[in-house]
């Protein structure tokens, strides 16, 4: 009885081992151990080596092929280079520097600055002292003392030379004045009349220092001629630019 039972167990064990060998190994029958659609996990050492690098784009590959097929330049040949054409510099505006004046008063100068404010590139005002003729003086030099001047005056009266007076003060004290004239022609006529009467009459220019007002301007050449339409009654001359 025991042997029969042992025999049955051995047969059952053989059947179980055979079924496991036949149905339990998936690789033998080509079945995957993972679910459908899920990639199988592989170790890094099991991955195949990457393929050799190729040109990333068709254009790059074509460039490489063209470069390889192009003939290499001769070491002695030189490629002609077109001469560089210099760039034409922009045309710069040219300027004229002038001094306008003289103006009689500071008000006239200020009005001229206002009239040219939109036309001149730069302006500056200045004042100068100049000598101006105030008239022509005809006289007889004094004798050095009041008595000698009086004696000379009596002689003038006797010669019918009138319109005179004796200067009593200043540097010309005791000088006999025969007249002050604006017109030099009238002064010369008076002098000649007294000289003809026998007296050494002299003639001198009387001057005084007076201020002059000037306006220096810097104007573009294409518009410097228009200033005369804006400022009248004065002249101009060239001056240094500033």
Percentage of residues in strands: 15-25%
| Rg, alpha carbons | 62 Å
Strand order of the main beta sheet, please? 3-4-2-5-1-6
Give the helix level as a range of percent: 25-40%
Mean pLDDT: 79
The protein's oligomeric status is single chain
Shape: rod-shaped
Number of strands: 6
Order of helices and strands: HHEHEHEEHEE
- Helix/strand/pairing category: alpha+beta
CATH topology of the domain at 132-208: Alpha-Beta Plaits
Main beta sheet strand tally, sense and closure? 6 strands, antiparallel
What would the keywords be for this entry?
alpha+beta, Alpha-Beta Plaits, about 25% strand, about 240 residues, single chain
Give a brief outline of the structure.
The protein is α+β, with helices and mostly antiparallel strands and 242 residues long.
Report on this structure.
The chain is built from 5 helices and 6 strands; from the N terminus they run ααβαβαββαββ. The chain is 29% helix and 24% strand. The model is unreliable at 53-68 (pLDDT under 50). The longest helix is centred in the N-terminal third of the chain and has 22 residues, at 2-23. Among the domains are: 95-131 and 210-238, Alpha-Beta Plaits (2-Layer Sandwich), CATH 3.30.70.3060; 132-208, Alpha-Beta Plaits, CATH 3.30.70. By secondary structure, it is α+β, with helices and mostly antiparallel strands. It has a 6-stranded antiparallel beta sheet. This is SPOR domain-containing protein. It comes from Dyella halodurans.
């Amino acid at each position: 009885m025991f042997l029969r039972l042992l025999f049955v167990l051995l047969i059952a064990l053989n059947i179980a081992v055979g079924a496991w060998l036949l149905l339990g190994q998936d690789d033998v029958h080509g079945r995957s151990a993972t679910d459908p659609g899920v990639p199988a996990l592989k170790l890094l050492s099991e991955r195949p080596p990457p393929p050799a690098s190729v040109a990333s784009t068709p254009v790059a590959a074509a460039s490489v092929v063209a470069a390889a097929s192009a003939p290499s330049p001769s070491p002695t040949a030189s490629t002609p280079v077109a001469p560089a054409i210099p760039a034409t510099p922009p045309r710069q505006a040219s300027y004229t520097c002038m001094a306008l004046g003289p103006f009689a008063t500071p008000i006239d100068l200020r009005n001229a600055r206002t009239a040219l404010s939109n036309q001149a590139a730069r302006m500056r005002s200045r004042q100068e002292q100049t000598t101006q003729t105030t008239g022509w003086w005809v006289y007889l030099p004094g004798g050095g003392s009041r008595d000698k001047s009086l004696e000379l005056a009596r002689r003038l009266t006797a010669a019918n030379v009138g319109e005179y007076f004796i200067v009593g003060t200043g540097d010309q004290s005791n000088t006999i004045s025969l007249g002050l004239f604006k017109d030099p022609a009238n002064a010369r006529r008076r002098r000649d009349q007294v000289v003809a009467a026998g007296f050494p009459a002299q003639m001198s220019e009387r001057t005084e220092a007076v201020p002059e007002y000037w306006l220096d301007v810097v104007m573009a050449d294409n518009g410097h001629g228009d200033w005369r339409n804006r400022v009248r009654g004065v002249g101009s001359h060239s001056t240094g630019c500033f």
